[in-house]
Amino acid sequence: MTLVRERRHQQALRLALPPPSPSTDRKQRTHLPALSPATSPDSPCIENLSELEKLAVLGHGNGGTVYKVCHKKTSLVYALKVLRFNHNAIANRQQAAREAEILKLVDSPYIIRCHGVLDNGLMDEDSGGDLCFLMEYMEEGSLHDMLRARQRLPEQVIASVARRVLQGLEYLHGMQIVHRDIKPSNLLINGRGEVKIADFGVSDVVAGTCETCDSYMGTCAYMSPERFDPERWGRDGSDGFAGDVWSLGVVVLQCHMGRFPLIGPGQRPDWTTLMCVISFGERLDMPETASAEFQSFVSACLEKDWRKRATVAELLHHPFVDTSYCSSAEDLIDYVLHG
């Protein structure tokens, strides 16, 4: 495997992805691009995976495994996301190609940095193979890890996380990218108290309307009503961005309650239960222990009709995420380390 470097092009976003062929009597081929989105001096010059030493498994998800790795020459630590393909996983390869293209384009302090993509070249229906994303390492883990350790978070910490995620979504939506899988395990924290959006495995680029967001890609528990039940809530005219706002609202409420908030403590988050709650359920009652600002913010995110849901731009001006209320990065990391 080799790492091929390209210059970043911040031009109009265009993805050249081959559509799946309906034919079954010939080989279908998907090119997985070899690229490096990073142009900063701290990006490693790696030509082979043998230059990396695996230190630990960080997690699993979206058909892959994430490892903590060390670059043997420099001793720098990175996260390596490895996607493994079965011989018939054409759709998965195409989504991986889309993820690689998205990672090539994004450059924001609120988005996890990808230093490069390593692949084994052309993949077709007769070959498997790996696609590896060399990512920056976020040493304090994820928001999911923080919730598992602390159960519930103070409002000022939640506000700080929410503001940083909103800034990341503002950047992504400005690039016409919908994330589609905002959840605690995809929000990572580093030793400087920075929160960054990670995992673009089910993300997509939209233009006008969200034509490719109809599939149940992502995590159902955090899906918005219009994604879960488009017939009832309507998708015509939706660009998909409102779905990211809904997911953030669920995350924020989860941070306050210390558990997944849309169902009761004894309920299982299976598809049928989630459908009933997300599509047909009444508006959620806000926790009495929460401030008025918190309740207003979450209510604006969890408006079932996406046309009435607050936008990222509107939420960035909400009192709940005002910088005078949010924890600073130093306070956030102090909380992560010491509680």
UniProtKB/TrEMBL annotation:
**UniProt name for this protein:** Mitogen-activated protein kinase kinase 10
Chain residues that bind ATP: 81
Which spans does this entry mark as compositional bias, Basic residues?
A: 1-11
Family indicated by similarity: Belongs to the protein kinase superfamily.
Work out whether the entry's keyword set contains Transferase. yes
Pfam family name, one: Pkinase
Q: Name one GO cellular component term.
A: cytoplasm
Q: Answer whether the UniProt record assigns the keyword Kinase to this protein.
A: yes
* Entry keywords, A to Z: ATP-binding, Kinase, Nucleotide-binding, Serine/threonine-protein kinase, Transferase
Domain (Protein kinase): give its ranges: 52-321
List GO BP terms, alphabetically. response to other organism; response to stress
| Molecular-function GO term, any one | MAP kinase kinase activity
Query: Region entry Disordered: which residue ranges?
Result: 1-43
